[in-house]
Amino acid sequence: GESVGLHLPTLSVQEGDNSIINCAYSNSASDYFIWYKQESGKGPQFIIDIRSNMDKRQGQRVTVLLNKTVKHLSLQIAATQPGDSAVYFCAEKSGATNKLIFGTGTLLAVQP
Amino acid sequence: TAGITQAPTSQILAAGRSMTLRCTQDMRHNAMYWYRQDLGLGLRLIHYSNTAGTTGKGEVPDGYSVSRANTDDFPLTLASAVPSQTSVYFCASIGGRFMNTEAFFGQGTRLTVV
Questions:
Q1: CB of A8 within 8 A of CB of B40?
Q2: Which residues touch A64 (CB under 8 Å, ≥6 apart)?
Q3: What are the helix and strand counts (H, E) for chain B?
């Protein structure tokens, strides 16, 4: 993997603003996508998922958008709160092999 | 409580020694996965299994082996540990008929190879 530890993409937002975290995936055969949140010292925590036959799914304060044409996934967080500060990962699952591959991750920093 | 259990929580291992990281789930999920996460980085897939009796290689399989004798257990073995295998290891599983439901993660095993 690439050494992105000290160069993790960072998104800095003000508390109360909306956040949009983007992810480009590589496999056009992927049939399932998941967004995870990971806080320091903890394991990944499920946020929301979407299947390839959908282009949008909404949860509580979160929305995932899927654009299969350009292989792009985004996570929108409404009214971002300090507790949302974490690293966010997208993951794609291959429909052919069932491999679940994670993206690089984005650090979301919420400023009070 | 249903979920995935990993053991041990942490371990310090001498280089050259072997070790098996255990992973057990009680959700009857077919697909299981092993990842490693190095400091400040994302999760990289080591090995996976779609069903009992089958396994497959992930992104970084070298130096690791797995087995899937039954649905519940998916142990990861390091035959001869090296310092570069120092990492946090996570086990995960996915259920559903088409393996497209939420993936559950274990709490992680922190391994230090010295």
A1: yes
A2: A33, A35, A48, A49, A50, A56, A57, A73, A74, A75, A76
A3: 0, 11
pLDDT digits (tens, 9 = 90+) for A4-23: 344 678 999 999 999 999 99
Token digits of residue B113: 């190879």
Q: Do A100 and B108 touch (CB under 8 A)?
A: no
User: Taking a C-beta distance cutoff of 8 angstroms, is the pair B92, A100 a contact?
Assistant: yes
Over the stretch B61-110, which tens digit does the pLDDT of each residue have? 999 999 999 999 999 999 999 999 999 999 999 886 665 677 889 999 99
What's the pLDDT score for residue A83? 95
Q: Are A76 and B17 in contact (CB under 8 A)?
A: no
Q: Are B37 and B45 in contact (CB under 8 A)?
A: no
| N-terminal to C-terminal alpha carbon distance within chain B | 35
Residue of B nearest to A106 (CA): B42
